[in-house]
Here is the input.
Amino acid sequence: MTSELAGPPGSGARADLLARIAAIVGPTNVLSGPQLSGRAVDAWCLEDTAAAALVRPGSTAEVSAVMELCHAAGQVVIAEGGRTNLVRGTKAGLGEILLSLERMNHIGPVDVASASIMVEAGAIVQRVQEAAQAEDLRFGVDFGARGSATIGGTLAMNAGGIQVLRYGSARAQVLGLEVVLADGTVIEHLVPYAKDNTGYDLKQLFIGSEGTLGIITRASLKLVPHPTSVSTAFLAFSAFAGIPHLLRRLSRGLAGTLSSFEVLWGSFYDLNTGEGGMRAPVQRGLPYYVLCEAEGFDVTADQERFERLIAEALEGPHAAVDAAIAQSGRERLDFWRIREDFEAEIRLCPVLADFDVSLGVDAMEAFGEALAAALKREVPEHHALHIFGHMGDGNLHIGIGLPDARIKPKAEAVVYGLVSQMGGAISAEHGIGLTKRAWLGFSRKPEEIALMRRLKAALDPKGILNPGKVLG
Here is the structure.
């Protein structure tokens, strides 16, 4: 469709609609032209924002009024969160409006009795975590962009992170939502309880929909007791078979306290602990590594149990070659830096094709081997392959170093082709956006995609909400 704002700068239609929007949100909250110069699309795409305007409403009522106007005009609107999106999910065109909820960042008081909290969509994830922790509770989603990602964006993408194994992804934290539809209708069902079997669970339509079905404005979030103990270990393996064995052992032996189970292929571990890198807590040069963490509520008993299980992991037919347990909070953070730091990879790979896929645990070793062989055969120009990820919930991240960005489609065809062959998902937690849209059929059947289109048409008949993302 053609937007009403697609005309030349200063056109009458554009000026009139923006003036009417400014009357709703205030003139200082409609930015356009030179005011957007130098503003990057997001943290990963440093191109200038190309939108006709950036609109910053201050309330749900203002979002509703803006959407009512835009719906009547057939104007495209793209909801924007903390701009940490990894799939170009908030990239705007010249005639499109970006709608940022940054002013809607209120965090309500924690309801300790129901272990819940009401927050506006523009609230930063880390601030929500801190509000929960002040009441000895925890918000169960955590990831590297916690200091800039917003709750609205986190829910719209159904973000995962490092503790999905224990607490579930973003959708598992939501008790209720408030959403503004494409025509300005407000759908509000904000409840402080988990069990609600009254008809369709409408909130799940919008969580993970990437802003294509509605704009999340507020959320009632579930909280959990904040652990009092944390135990962290790094282990090295000479064979992959020992890793799922360890996962099963820890899942049983830690009595439900295992919160993270990360796997790193040796090339990534060696890169981050090499010359000028971080100190290696366990022997380098092996094919596989595991970073695992448990959190509980009995400091002494939890640590003793954890240490016993890690010691047992060094024995038997599936034994680890080496293991180290963090002895301080600082050492724990150093362990996690090996997993979360990408500076060495960025230096090595100025052009990096990155992937976020899901596979069955039993397919991961074969996938890694097949991928290395296929890249050598199909993309001989590549100069690095790094695999790591949240193995406990079936999620692997892949980084492929390339000499030229024009080669990325070849790497994508290799990766997604193998994922499809092995029954995996082309996106585990980063969404589809623009960058994976062409590959959606590798993980979803035609009937599923057809149903997605019907849902989109029903909720956004004019196609004004983030068009072109997820579905072409």
About this structure: The first strand starts at residue 30 and ends at 31. Confidence is low (pLDDT under 50) at residues 1-10. The domain at 4-100 is CATH 3.30.43.10 (Uridine Diphospho-n-acetylenolpyruvylglucosamine Reductase; domain 2).
